[in-house]
Amino acid sequence: KNQVEQSPQSLIILEGKNCTLQCNYTVSPFSNLRWYKQDTGRGPVSLTIMTFSENTKSNGRYTATLDADTKQSSLHITASQLSDSASYICVVSAETGGFKTIFGAGTRLFVKA
Amino acid sequence: EAGVAQSPRYKIIEKRQSVAFWCNPISGHATLYWYQQILGQGPKLLIQFQNNGVVDDSQLPKDRFSAERLKGVDSTLKIQPAKLEDSAVYLCASSPRGGTKNIQYFGAGTRLSVL
Questions:
Q1: N or C: lower Cβ tally within 10 Å for chain B?
Q2: Mean pLDDT calculated for residue range B25-36
Q3: What is the nearest CA distance from B104 to chain A, expressed in angstroms?
């Protein structure tokens, strides 16, 4: 069964600290993995996308890693800011005859001053 | 560049009533998606259009949900009749083409509460 599991479910950190969010998936055949940021009351916004051959991708203070062998990805946030408070959603896609995209439930991050 | 527009932002109805949501994608985007996002969960795809044709509606509860994109531009999603479990945020997204490598641009969503 195609699944995307994220951990932790929620996280509270102090402003300026780093944090790492985890994503494990069983989607097959793997095509790409994307991390989205969803602010409260807004739609998700794409942060990074990685294909099978890429094992790291950065977007400012966000760095995503991918281990296609273990089917794990992480999103590392450096020097967190209050504006990083949001849900971070891992999305894994497969391409068979058609397209299949599976969304994780997200990690809710709270950054405190 | 204007983003994906959705209306209304909020809607409160009683169970068994009908409701409709509207989405206007980014100009020129051929692919349009409707998602249902229940509180605390990730979005679930309801239907995907390529221009005015349906690509995937396998998770759309067709006994009560319907969607159309008649002219290949804006789209409406309808629920008739609504159930309590339909309470969720309904997100519309668009992308220039189909395929999972293309970024999907999301609207702010319509928050539906069914009482």
A1: N
A2: 94
A3: 8
Segment A60-84, tens digit of pLDDT:
999 999 999 999 999 999 999 999 9
Q: What number of C-beta contacts closer than 8 Å exist between A and B?
A: 53
CA of A17 vs chain B CAs: smallest distance (Å): 25
* Binary contact (B56, A98; C-beta < 8 A): yes
Q: Report the C-alpha gap between A23 and A105 in whole angstroms.
A: 10
Q: What is the mean pLDDT of residues A23-44?
A: 92
pLDDT at position B49 over 90 = yes
How far apart (Å, rounded) are the C-alpha atoms in residues A43 and B93? 9
Task: Judge whether residue B98 has pLDDT over 80.
Answer: no
- Rounded to a whole number of angstroms, the distance from the CA of A11 to the nearest CA of chain B is 14
- The backbone torsions φ and ψ at residue A66, rounded to the nearest 5 degrees and listed phi first, read -140, 130
Return the SS3 of A15. coil
- To test the contact with chain A by mutation, choose from B47, B101, B103, B110 the residue with the greatest count of A C-beta atoms within 10 A, namely B101
Name the residue among B41, B91, B100 with its Cβ closest to that of A43: B91
* Of B111, B93, B89, B99, the residue nearest B25 (C-alpha): B93
Q: Reduce the DSSP state of residue A64 to 3 states and report it.
A: strand
pLDDT value, residue A27: 86
Closest-approach residue (CA) in chain B for A3: B42
